[in-house]
Amino acid sequence: MTSLDTDYYHSKMESNMKITDSTLIRWAGLAAVAAGVIFAGIQPIHPPDVLASVSTDAWAIITPLKTVMAFLFLLGITGIYARQANKAGWLGLAGFFLLSLCWSIQLAFIFAEAFILPPLATVAPQFVDGILAVVSGQPAEGNLGALPALFALAGIPYMLGGLLFGIATIRAGILSRWAAGLLAVASILTPLATLLPHATQRLAGIPVGLALAWLGYALWSERRAAAAELGSPQLRQSGAKKGRCKPYGADRWLQQLSVPTPYQNWSQKRKDFCQRTTRYVQAD
């Protein structure tokens, strides 16, 4: 392999790494969309949190789906924060930390609902009933240790995290302000849902799920539009007219003929063009 081939190989690797970074953030937005849709969609059809529901087919379908949802929420929130970290400030960092803490705790409880409680429903029904009472906000019988306090604690970062994260997103001005406002308002109004019956309380989660799905879609569509603009013929033609880059095949042919050319360091020229093009798209 010649030195020119090596330079071209490294330039391709650098380009692939940049595309991968952008793609990861874009897929994080898609993860937030999926999690938000699942979170909003399961609220009206979720089986009651009682012992009899644990052995039903609906429980066997919905609770594993909730486990995937919680994991996708963690990925999606991370991508949304990463996109606006430079402008979100300490408010965005605090909101991101609180929401991540909330969904980490929720993930543990949801995993237990999906894979631990069903086998114990016939062996230790009192324990299962106690866990379900904690989840539904009812007093639990028996000694469950710190689980009731831990689950109650998850409600605080859910409310404050959504509020702070929504306000920080509005101030950052990168993603949809309407979606961020919906997240902030829906999160701060969550305590009012405790005045309603538990079956109705679940419906209060629909606006939060829709807001996070909206933010995820804004992130995904923004990255998709940027990628399309980077690959547009007009942008490539503009770059060629200004002499920013030159086709690799012609440059390699001139190199083989030992003809001096200003584009001998192809990898550096390609890197500079990509950086300038990226800044141009982000400035728009």
Could you please describe the fold and organization of this structure?
With 284 residues, the protein is mainly α. Helix content is 77%, strand content 0%. The chain contains eleven helices and no strands. It has helices at residues 3-42, 57-115, 117-120, 125-135, 147-172, 177-188, 198-201, 205-230, 233-241, 248-256, 266-283. The longest helix is centred in the N-terminal third of the chain and has 59 residues, at 57-115. The radius of gyration is 25 Å and the shape is elongated. The two termini are 40 Å apart.
Residue share in helix: over 70%
Low-confidence stretches: 238-264, 276-284
Tally of DSSP β-strands: 0
Span between N and C termini?
40 Å
Order of H and E elements = HHHHHHHHHHH
Describe the sheet with the most strands.
none
Q: Tell me the Rg in angstroms.
A: 25 Å
User: What is the general shape?
Assistant: elongated
Mean pLDDT: 79
Strand content: under 5%
Secondary structure class reads mainly alpha
What count of helical segments does DSSP give? 11
Which features characterize this protein?
284 residues, mainly alpha, 77% helix, disordered C terminus
Which SSEs are present, and which pair or pack?
Blueprint: H1 3-42, H2 57-115, H3 117-120, H4 125-135, H5 147-172, H6 177-188, H7 198-201, H8 205-230, H9 233-241, H10 248-256, H11 266-283
Helix pairs in contact: 1-2, 1-8, 1-11, 2-5, 2-8, 5-6, 6-8
Give a quick precis of the structure.
The protein is mostly helical and 284 residues long. Helices cover 77% and strands 0% of the residues.
